[in-house]
Amino acid sequence: MAGRRVVVFPSSAELGPALAHLVTSRAEKAIASRGRFTVGLSGGSLVSMLSKELLAMSDLDCSKWVAGFCDERVVSFDDPDSTYGLYKNQFFSKVNIPDSGILVIDPSLPVNDCAEDYTCKLKKTFPDDEFPVFDLLLLGMGPDGHTCSLFPDHPLLEETKKIVAPISDSPKPPPQRVTMTFPVVNSARCVAFVSTGGSKATVLKEVLEGREGPAFPAARVVPTNGELFWLVDDPAAASLTIQVERPSSGAKL
After folding, report:
1. Per the database record, which ranges form the Glucosamine/galactosamine-6-phosphate isomerase domain (predicted)?
2. Contact criterion met (CB below 8 Å) for 193 and 136
3. Is residue 233 within 8 Å of 12, Cβ to Cβ?
4. What three-state secondary structure class fits 64?
5. What is the DSSP letter of 46?
6. N or C: which terminal CB in the chain sees fewer CB atoms within 10 Å?
């Protein structure tokens, strides 16, 4: 692993542009090396922040992007719980990403079949990898320390073979979801967590500093050969005692 970087911003307003630059810089690097940029997206507050900041970039070119989802709710695309639906409305419909570059679930399938179908889509997209190697995964973390749809004390935390796993008993609604597994997450070239707000302060300290860290799913994200960023704001970082980076205004990651 290239090492963990914990980068603290005064507020989400300063964090957003740095996140957008991280995405576009990794995209340029990937396209120059491999002819495409593969990115895994997460939902929640990340959707609006990422969409707003990327759309503010004047020269954004998504024509060689391939976007998948770190997890997804098994609901119709017009349901407000659909992560793809949110990105479609706020981002995909406004950029030049081809339809073939967006890897979506089939929400009409039962949850187990939906996970199998999405696994097949990822295998076609990453035919040479045992586990898909994304250029960048963007993750969030819940107040319970979950990430993707990998929740504390859930059997899926120990999954080692599946690429995409079904979950029908999510403690957070909606209950039926599909999620990338840790072998996929930890195969990525770069993983970036975005965590903001004071409600995350206690769990963030435990994940980054605590002896019980591995008990939290987010603490198990340790890319084998990749970069790991934690991009957080001052309220989320309020309890941290480890050394962190505080970039000057406009600094690039």
Report:
1. 11-230
2. no
3. yes
4. coil
5. H
6. N
CA distance 172 to 4: 28
Burial classification of residue 166, based on how many CB atoms lie within 10 Å of its CB (0-12 exposed, 13-18 middle, 19 or more buried):
buried
- Going by C-alpha positions, the residue among 219, 191, 192, 186 that lies closest to residue 204 is 219
Residue 110: C-alpha distances to residues 104, 154, 156, 164, 173 (Å): 15, 20, 18, 14, 17
Ramachandran angles phi, psi of 47, nearest 5°: -60, -55
pLDDT tens string 150-200: 999 999 999 999 999 999 999 999 999 999 999 999 999 999 999 999 999
CATH number of 4-227: 3.40.50.1360
81 DSSP 8-state letter: T
- What is 153-207 written as a DSSP string? T-GGGG--S-SEEEES--SSSSS-EEEE-HHHHTT-SEEEEEE-SGGGHHHHHHH
Distance of CA 251 to CAs 19, 63, 68, 243, Å? 11, 26, 28, 18
Element (DSSP H or E) covering residue 23: helix 12-34
Task: Write down the pLDDT at residue 246.
Answer: 94
Q: What is the pLDDT of residues 177-186, one digit of tens each?
A: 999 999 999 9
Q: Which amino acid is at 89?
A: N
Query: Which segments within 12-119 are labelled E, that is strand?
Result: 37-41, 65-69, 71-73
